[in-house]
Each structure stands twice: as structure tokens, then as C-alpha cells.
Amino acid sequence: MPKIDAYEREVLEAFEQGKLESVASKNELARFKAAARATAIKDRRVNIRLSSIDLNDIQVRALEEGIPYQTLIASVLHKYVTGRLAEKPQRITNRSNVTGRLAAKPKNTTIRSKGRVAKRRAA
Q1: Can you give the pLDDT at residue 121?
Q2: Exposure check for the chain: N or C terminus, fewer CB within 10 A?
Q3: What DSSP designation does 18 have?
Q4: Predicted TM-score (pTM) of this structure
Q5: Which residues have CB under 8 Å from 123's CB, separation 6+?
Q6: What are 115's strand-pairing partners?
Q7: Nearest CA-CA partner of 40 in 10, 4, 74
Q8: What residues contact residue 120 under an 8 Å CB cut-off, 6+ apart?
Q9: Which residues pair with 110 in a beta bridge?
Q10: 66-99 residue pLDDT tens
């Protein structure tokens, strides 16, 4: 468990002793539960075509984040449709720099996903 300060310890102890009460009404709790269920349900399958380079970049990013690449794709799409995907200044990728010229060739990268190993070849 990460280090917690005195206030956090006090809140945690109060919670564990059952001294805290919810400030949400039953109606609000029902709405929160319904929203959580709707967010967590993944009842549809989607097949998309991606370039090999984009898929490899997604897999590398997911590996860096410590999550499966399908989860990363679903998370990015969810954030986009809910308006929570914030644009950041253009990031320099392995493929190009700010001026659009090709950057130096990337080094080979090993990607491990569900027991499979794939080599990302330098372009």
C-alpha cells in the first residue's frame, strides 16, 4: 500500500469502522450504478483494418502502459466519444519529425502479448 498521510489514515479507519455515510440519494446511486454497468459492458465486436506500423506502435504503447493493446484501443475510443480525449502538442514519432521528413530508422523492438512474441522491424 502506498504511504498515506494522517488525514487519509483517518478517513480509511472511519470507513473500515463503518462510520461514513453516503451523501448520495438512492436515485443518484441508481444512476451511478446504471452508468457503471453501461460503461463496463462490452457486448459488441468490431473488426478494423490498421496499418502494420500503427498496430505495432499501439502494441508498443500498450506494453509501456502495462495493458493489453485491445484495452488501450477501447480506452482511446471511449475517451474520444465521451469528449475526454485531449489533444496534446504533436509528438515526434519514429516515422517522422515535425517537418514531416523521415526520422532515423527505429531500432528493432520485441513485443510480447499473450504469450506471443513479435519483432518490430526497423523500417
Answers
A1: 52
A2: N
A3: T
A4: 0.45
A5: 53, 94, 95, 105, 106
A6: none
A7: 74
A8: 56, 60, 106, 108, 109, 110, 111
A9: 119
A10: 899 998 999 899 889 988 888 877 766 655 544 4
**Residue 115, amino acid:** G
Which among 60, 73, 69 is positioned nearest to 107, based on CA atoms? 60
Q: Is the dihedral of CA 12, 17, 18, 21 positive or negative?
A: negative
Determine the Cα–Cα distance for residues 95 and 105; give it in Å rounded to an integer: 8
50-64, pLDDT tens digit by residue? Answer: 999 999 999 999 999
* Nearest CA-CA partner of 109 in 117, 101, 98, 100: 117
Contacts of 113 (CB under 8 A, 6+ apart): 59, 62, 63, 68, 69
